[in-house]
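hey so i finally got around to running the thing on that chain from the lab meeting. sorry it took forever, my laptop kept dying and i had to restart like 3 times. anyway pasting the input first so we r on the same page abt which one it is
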Amino acid sequence: MEPLVSIITPTYNHQDYIAECIQSVLDQTFIHWEMIIIDDGSTDNTLNRAYEFEHRDDRIKVYTQKNIGIFRLAETYNKALGMAQGKYIAILEGDDYWEHDKLRLQVELLEGNNEVILCWGQAWSISSDKNKIYNIYPDENLKEALFFNNDPVGSVLNMLLYKDWIPALTIIIRANELKKSGGFNQAYNMPTIDLPTLLNLSLLGKFVFISRPLGYWRIYAGQITKVYPALLSEGYFKLVKDFIVTNHDNQIVKTIKIKNIYSFHRDQLIIAYSRSGRYKLIRGQFSDARADYFKSIFRGGFNKPIWKLRSTIGVLFSVFHLNVEGLSAILGKKTYTVS
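ok and heres what got predicted. didnt touch it at all, straight out
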């Protein structure tokens, strides 16, 4: 019997997490799936741990490749997409894991509504060791919730052109619509495929949002979004501008306040460089952290003064090699570990 859902799992040096990731798939109440794991040349024990599960269940298929890195991530995803046999494509990277009924809930919704091309939901954000639960993302009470279902088609752009509110590990997509949109997309040197792919899908059909957590997203200073926040923010702004120009005739795009979007992203760059400085401090990259803090301070005039103050404090911490996470803990703020 062919699988109804193909789960794509790219992984790299996730030896501490990959077993829990795979086990969360094995524990699904929905059983008609295949899991395509592509190891991007891990240098730890990730691949061997994945092979152990492949030997136990023939729905799990493990492949390895010479490391090509996150800046060619779309190649890895599309390689898996080319092998996928399922009607639906789900995403689960090697350091995340699912709730046990995630697939059942989503398949039932998709099978019952042909107008819907993508289903997604909330996710818990947690520390790498699972000792801290930070929050549920996104908050269903946000004003942006009006656009969560992309109804009418294209309306989700009212949030996606500002920020990616959709946790990748919760996404399941109709395979034919994903292929119609060009598959997984990557743009402007962004080390992620989420936003470019979602923007392409936003004009093809409705989405459906499930108002409950579907999985767990680990947050730590060594992950991609924390290593490259400034690069992501720079790329996001370029992607958004290009998308608006390319689709300027679309009726939904015409109604969007473009000046507000551009202003938002300029402010986000101030925040992104400040955050980048923080994560570099955590990793002990003191001179690089200082450089990012200065970029945050001197961008955007007097916008985002609180963030500029944070960056100024960060400069001092980088000069004296102080523990920024210790200060965050004292202030009762969210703290991070390296891995």
